[in-house]
Write a structure and sequence with these properties.
With about 300 residues, the chain is of the alpha/beta class. The chain contains nine helices and twelve strands. Strands 3, 4, 5, 6, 7, 8, 9, 10, 11 and 12 form a ten-stranded mixed beta sheet that branches. The protein has a two-stranded antiparallel sheet with strand order 1-2. Strand 9 and strand 10 form a beta hairpin. Helix 8 packs parallel to helix 9.
């Protein structure tokens, strides 16, 4: 893992920005070579196979390798919220979440912290961690970084936000997102194989999420095309999300929720593509309740 974070600069994410994080500089993710997190607690708002009845042991990390203009977690994505922790403390947090009864360890936006997370996970396993580890990310991942994590991650939970490169550039400053995400998700599946559930909890495999954006139905249909082309039924789980919530300052179509007609159009195409394993979200799901308080709980 050190090979991707050296004196020549950080190469952990697809931006390859080369920021000298080890000497206090920051790149696109806005964090130096230290761990920052905003919350560590049982979380009940994931898909049923992740949250279960007892909750997912979720660590929300600060900073992000994307810059989505509609982000619901903008304050931590910009690294405006969060506390510095050591990788040794992160090990303790994993074990504490296990003690609290979590179904899994859920790492949210972990990419830019991969070397420290890797050390903390290895130490936690040595000290008795037995839970599946979930890598919960935006889908904009470097295949090289994912390969460095092989053997440590049991479940990958990526977004597949865009099939439209122009839209990805405009909304997330990532024109290469479609190709990068498709390659990353293929690598995730190579590592885990088909989805495996035990007592209703996903213990191995890939669960791909897609958030329908208002006014961008063609993009959603393109994502479904890409998923159905790449994967066979039963390979992965798919979660179609209707919870888009306009954030302050949103403009144009992004200033409104999705419509029933938009949701029904994407849902119908989901069935037409033969994507049957996974979840769909209630049309009325849009709510700020999905956004946790970044109050440093559990850190």
């Amino acid at each position: 893992m050190r090979s991707l974070l050296t004196d020549s600069g950080c190469r952990l994410c697809p931006r390859n920005c080369g920021a000298d994080r080890e000497h206090g500089k920051t790149g696109f993710c806005k964090v130096p070579a230290e761990l920052y997190a905003a919350r560590a607690a049982l979380h009940f708002w994931e898909e049923p196979c992740i949250s279960g009845e007892r909750g997912s042991g979720t660590v929300f990390f600060s900073g992000c390798t994307l810059r989505c203009v509609y982000c619901q977690n903008a304050s931590i994505a910009r690294a405006d919220a969060g506390r510095r922790i050591t990788w040794e403390r992160l090990t303790e947090i994993f074990l504490e979440l296990q003690e609290q009864g979590a179904h899994n360890i859920n790492l949210v936006t972990p990419t830019h912290y991969a070397p420290w997370i890797s050390k903390a996970l290895q130490r936690a396993v040595d000290q008795g961690l037995k839970l599946p580890v979930v890598y919960n990310c935006g889908g904009y991942e470097s295949v090289e970084t994912l390969r460095e994590l092989e053997g440590l991650i049991d479940v990958y939970l990526p977004d597949f936000k865009y099939a439209d490169a122009e839209l990805a550039a405009r909304l997330s400053s990532a024109p290469d997102y479609p190709a990068v995400a498709e390659a990353a998700i293929a690598e995730m599946f190579r590592q885990t194989g088909p989805a495996r559930l035990e007592d209703g909890i996903l213990t191995r495999g890939v669960l791909v999420r897609h958030l329908i954006l208002p006014g961008e139905i063609d993009n959603s249909l393109g994502v479904l095309d890409a998923v159905s082309r790449r994967f066979h039924p039963g390979d992965i789980l798919f979660s179609l999300m209707a919870q888009y919530t306009p954030m302050p300052g949103a403009q144009g179509d992004l200033a409104r929720p999705i419509t029933r007609e938009e949701y029904d159009a994407v849902l119908s195409y989901l069935w037409l593509c033969g994507i049957q394993d996974g979840y769909t979200q209630d049309f009325q799901a849009a709510s700020a309740e999905y956004i946790p308080d970044w109050d440093l709980t559990g850190l």
